[in-house]
Amino acid sequence: MAMFLIRRIGHGILVLWLISIAVFGLFFVAPSNVAQTLAGRQATPETIALIKHRLGLDLPVWKQYLHFLGNALKGNLGYDYYHQVPVTKIIAQALPITVSLALGAAVLWLLLGVFNGVISATHPRSLADRGLTLFALFFYSFPSFLLGLLLLYFLYFRLTLAGFNWFPAGGYSPIAGGVGPWFQHLVLPWIALALLLAATYTRLTRGSMLDVLGEDYIRTARSKGIRESRVVVVHGLRSALTPVITQFGIDLGQLIGGVVVTETVFSLPGLGQTAVVAINQQDLPVIIGIVLFASAAVVVANILVDIGYAVLDPRVRLH
């Protein structure tokens, strides 16, 4: 197990190093005037000169890269000259919102997707199976922004007109201000995100469960008289969850890096909306910081998935 973990962490570090080279090449080597680009269009000559001095842009490229990499390893993702604050401060302000959105939605879509997949697989070609398959295909093909707007229209606008102010129009309330308002502001984004992603997990769980339930050891367990619920949950679902866990890690890692569409529709100032604003303002230090953070989130999530994968299926530790 230790060698397996070392290999996976080593692969993750290699991926992050390659990403740092790509980001450095894209943002520091390709532009003709890096300091002007980082400072923004309204920067003064003094600000541009200060940026050149801080970033060591008069040094050879390889020294610039080592300076960039060293700062990133220390947690210094640069300085946002547009808002006059460190980039890490902007990420720290937006991250709790994105994490709240991603984790809450993850719980919903995982429970909904796995439950629906198990029901479909244990009742193949039944009315329930066909209905859940239709449910999955419907939401799988639904544009995320349209689902968000429909939820806002029916559950905020129409209910408010009817005198039921159950859901806000958007925005975010920190959990420090009370669990109730925090939950109230996030429940619609959670539902929007969970319905879209649960469709994928329903299909994954169903396909994997159908394969597993046809294995010899499942027939052996049934022939011993073990209860059907125990055969399905303990013997079948555990083996069937490995592709689900893999997909879960990838999805969660990507969402931690920013849920652009959902955050924009529901006016949540998370990492996704912050990235969109930074792109519109050509605020490159913030874009670079979010790209590096999002990449690290995906890599860490995949390492955690590999560990969970090895726990569920010990055979993967041998490869």
Shape: flat
Strand tally is: 2
Q: What percentage of amino acids are in beta strands? A: under 5%
The succession of helices and strands, N to C, reads HHHHEEHHHHHHHHH
- Write down the Rg: 24 Å
* Average pLDDT for all residues: 84
* Subunit organisation of the chains: single chain
- Given helix and strand content, the structural type is mainly alpha
Q: What proportion of the residues is helical, as a percent range?
A: over 70%
Instruction: Give unreliable regions as ranges.
Output: none
Largest sheet, if any? 2 strands, antiparallel
Strand line-up across the major sheet? 1-2
Give the end-to-end Cα distance, rounded to a whole number of Å: 11 Å
> What is the helix tally?
13
Describe this structure in words.
The protein has 319 residues and is mainly alpha-helical. It contains 13 helices and two strands, in the order ααααββααααααααα. The chain has helices spanning 2-29, 34-39, 45-55, 61-73, 87-122, 127-140, 144-161, 179-213, 216-223, 228-256, 260-265, 271-280, 284-312; strands spanning 79-80, 85-86. The protein has a two-stranded antiparallel sheet. A hairpin with a 4-residue loop joins strand 1 and strand 2 (85-86). Helix 5 runs antiparallel to helix 6 (127-140).
